[in-house]
């Protein structure tokens, strides 16, 4: 009988060992998953590091040229201000009624009707209606 009890005890020990082995395998799988995740994060960080190293290289190459660009920007801003002032002056000159180059006199006849009684050009205060070349009616308010 002693062998039967020993067999049962050995079977229980074997089950416990299998459980421990399964737990160890589960821990190993979880560790591998986390390790793979860390490797992916490391790759992403290495790519970002490469990008920032490239930006640093580009920036350090452009750094000596920055004062030149700043000077050019200042010159362009001052030129823009001058052109704005010039544009304002030209706009004011164009809109000014005293500017004789703004208009030109046209040759020809003035076709506004003439009042036969006052011999003046018809305006808002004078209305002339000619029905026939011999008959004209004019109403003028002075």
Q: Globular, elongated, flat, extended or rod-shaped: what is the shape?
A: elongated
Q: Biggest sheet, in brief?
A: 2 strands, antiparallel
Question: N-to-C terminal Cα separation, in Å?
Answer: 149 Å
Radius of gyration: 51 Å
The number of distinct β-strands equals: 2
Helix percentage: 55-70%
Give me the secondary-structure category: mainly alpha
Low-confidence spans: none
Mean pLDDT over the full residue set: 82
Report what the structure shows.
With 142 residues, this protein is mainly α. It has a domain at 111-142. The chain is built from two helices and two strands, in the order H-H-E-E. The longest helix has 61 residues, at 2-62.
Quickly list its features:
mainly alpha; 2 strands; 142 residues; 64% helix
Quick gist of this model?
This protein is mainly alpha-helical and 142 residues long.
Lay out the secondary structure.
Elements: H1 2-62, H2 66-95, E1 126-132, E2 135-140
Antiparallel strand pairs: 1-2
């Amino acid at each position: 009988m002693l062998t039967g009890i020993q067999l049962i005890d050995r079977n229980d020990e074997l089950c416990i060992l299998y459980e421990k082995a399964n737990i160890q395998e589960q821990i190993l799988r979880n560790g591998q998953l986390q390790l793979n995740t860390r490797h992916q994060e490391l790759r992403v960080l290495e790519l970002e590091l490469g990008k920032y190293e490239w930006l640093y290289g580009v920036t350090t190459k452009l750094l000596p040229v920055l004062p030149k660009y700043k000077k050019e920007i200042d010159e362009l801003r001052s030129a823009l201000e001058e052109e704005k002032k010039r544009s304002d002056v030209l706009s004011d000159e164009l809109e000014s009624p005293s500017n004789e180059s703004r208009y030109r006199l046209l040759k020809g006849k003035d076709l506004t009707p003439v009042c036969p009684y006052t011999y003046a050009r018809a305006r808002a205060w004078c209305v002339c209606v000619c029905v026939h070349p011999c008959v004209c009616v004019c109403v003028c308010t002075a």
